[in-house]
Amino acid sequence: MSAVVEERIDDDLWSAIGDPTRRRILDLLLLGDGTATSLSEDLPVTRQAVAKHLAVLDRVGLVRATPAGREKRYRVDEAQLARAVAQLSSVGRAWDARLQRIKRIAEAIQRTAKEQ
Amino acid sequence: MEFGTIEREIFVEASPEVVFEVVSSPHHLQEWWPDEAEYDPSPGGSGTISFGEFDADRTVVGITVVDAEPPRRFTFRWTHPVGDAARVGNSLLVTFELTPTRGGTLLTMTERGFREMGWEAAVLEQQFHEHETGWDFYLPRVAPYAESLATRR
């Protein structure tokens, strides 16, 4: 896969999890497999809307579908989800380190000010 | 789980005035984040922050102060190309909120804009992170290693 194509997929992956309804769908699917019908019972949107969201998630590989009667049954692709989550948690760790340094610097200044 | 926004909180044993100075002034910013920072820390002020000390691996990005209310709030955008106006979609938005508490300050940081900027922004942040934590990671390990070398003699 060329770098350009890979980047494109990453962008799609990112916008796929950017949507609050799709994040809710992922949360529900992490609890157990589901179909558009079963998921729509737990969501304030129609079955048709859920099916569209599932298609977006399927396209970027976040969910996998298997035929189940007239519908499709979906489950989360945990490897792909982990890949997306890892990217952001690395950024979170960066801020943890920065905030620790802010704390050290501010507390050193405060101590010096008190001593004077 | 909220994707696209990072939120952190830390208690600092210092007054909000001191903490505000540390999170907003270019001089202090250099001590906890980029290698170099040049900007006017008042609302609308803009400039640059640079990562990497040598020309070859140096990255320079824009920083624009959105809001500065000492000693309560400091907000800025960063990662936009130098010279471009900062806006939603070309930069990440960082907000520091300072709340006075018993014996110090509660500092809350949020970083937003990953969703609007797309995946590349997260990759970019990860790269800056890798750059800046290089020494943080290795330095504390140097001393014990040196000691273990000394005792083995």
Tertiary shape of chain B: globular
- How many distinct beta strands of chain A? 2
Number of helices of chain B: 4
Count of runs of 4 or more consecutive helical residues of chain A: 5
End-to-end Cα distance of chain A, whole Å, is 63 Å
| CATH superfamily placement of chain A | Winged helix-like DNA-binding domain superfamily/Winged helix DNA-binding domain
Helical content of chain A, roughly?
A: over 70%
Strand order of the largest sheet of chain A: 1-2
- Please give the most extensive interface between any two protein chains, plus how many residues each contributes: A-B, 34 and 39 residues
Give structural notes:
The complex is a heterodimer of chains A (116) and B (153). Chain A is mainly alpha-helical and 116 residues long. Chain A has one domain (3-115): Orthogonal Bundle (Arc Repressor Mutant, subunit A). Chain A has helices spanning 3-18, 20-31, 36-40, 47-59, 78-115; strands at residues 63-68, 71-76. In chain A, a hairpin with a 2-residue loop joins β1 and β2 (71-76). The longest helix of chain A has 38 residues, at 78-115. Chain A is elongated, with a radius of gyration of 21 Å. Chain B has 153 residues and is of the alpha+beta class. Chain B has one domain: 2-Layer Sandwich (Alpha-D-Glucose-1,6-Bisphosphate, Chain A, domain 4). Helix content of chain B is 35%, strand content 37%. Chain B has helices spanning 16-24, 26-32, 114-117, 119-152; strands at 5-12, 36-39, 46-51, 59-69, 73-80, 92-101, 104-112. Chain B has a seven-stranded antiparallel sheet. The longest helix of chain B is centred in the last third of the chain and has 34 residues, at 119-152. The A-B interface holds A 7, 10-11, 13-15, 17-18, 23, 27, 84-85, 87-88, 90-103, 105-107, 109-110, 113 and B 1-4, 6, 8, 10-15, 18-19, 21-23, 28, 31-33, 105, 107, 109, 111, 114-115, 118-120, 122-123, 125-126, 128-129, 132-133, 136.
